[in-house]
UniProtKB/TrEMBL annotation:
<dbReference type="InterPro" id="IPR036390">
    <property type="entry name" value="WH_DNA-bd_sf"/>
</dbReference>
<feature type="domain" description="HTH arsR-type">
    <location>
        <begin position="1"/>
        <end position="79"/>
    </location>
</feature>
<keyword id="KW-0804">Transcription</keyword>
<dbReference type="InterPro" id="IPR051081">
    <property type="entry name" value="HTH_MetalResp_TranReg"/>
</dbReference>
<dbReference type="GO" id="GO:0003677">
    <property type="term" value="F:DNA binding"/>
</dbReference>
<dbReference type="InterPro" id="IPR036388">
    <property type="entry name" value="WH-like_DNA-bd_sf"/>
</dbReference>
<dbReference type="InterPro" id="IPR011991">
    <property type="entry name" value="ArsR-like_HTH"/>
</dbReference>
<keyword id="KW-0805">Transcription regulation</keyword>
<protein>
    <submittedName>
        <fullName>ArsR family transcriptional regulator</fullName>
    </submittedName>
</protein>
<dbReference type="GO" id="GO:0003700">
    <property type="term" value="F:DNA-binding transcription factor activity"/>
</dbReference>
<dbReference type="InterPro" id="IPR001845">
    <property type="entry name" value="HTH_ArsR_DNA-bd_dom"/>
</dbReference>
<keyword id="KW-0238">DNA-binding</keyword>
<dbReference type="Pfam" id="PF12840">
    <property type="entry name" value="HTH_20"/>
</dbReference>
């Protein structure tokens, strides 16, 4: 559910009600997921009258992207080593 909320917020900032209307979970459940995303630095919130509008936090998303880039670089380097190792083993 958090990934769905994240993807919805990537399209546009939204209130809890707007998110809940598009999801098969209650408003309190959406609020709990938003709290986790906010605590993780991925979501920011601003008051707009009596509503709270949630949006992705560019700094948090940037940090996540940097971390994921590192994970992929490491995985690809390991894969490259594996391929080279097995390519030399198969040659006569």
């Amino acid at each position: 559910m958090r990934r769905a909320i994240f993807e919805m917020l990537a399209r546009r900032p939204s209130s809890v009600r707007e998110l809940a209307d598009q999801l098969p979970i209650s408003r309190p459940a959406v609020s709990q997921h938003l709290k986790v995303l906010k605590d993780g630095g991925l979501v920011a919130v601003r008051a707009e009258g009596t509503r709270r509008i949630y949006r992705l936090d560019p700094q948090g998303v940037g940090a996540l992207r940097t971390w994921l880039d590192g994970v992929w670089e490491h995985a690809l380097a390991d894969f490259h080593k594996f391929v080279e190792q097995h390519a030399t083993e198969e040659q006569p």
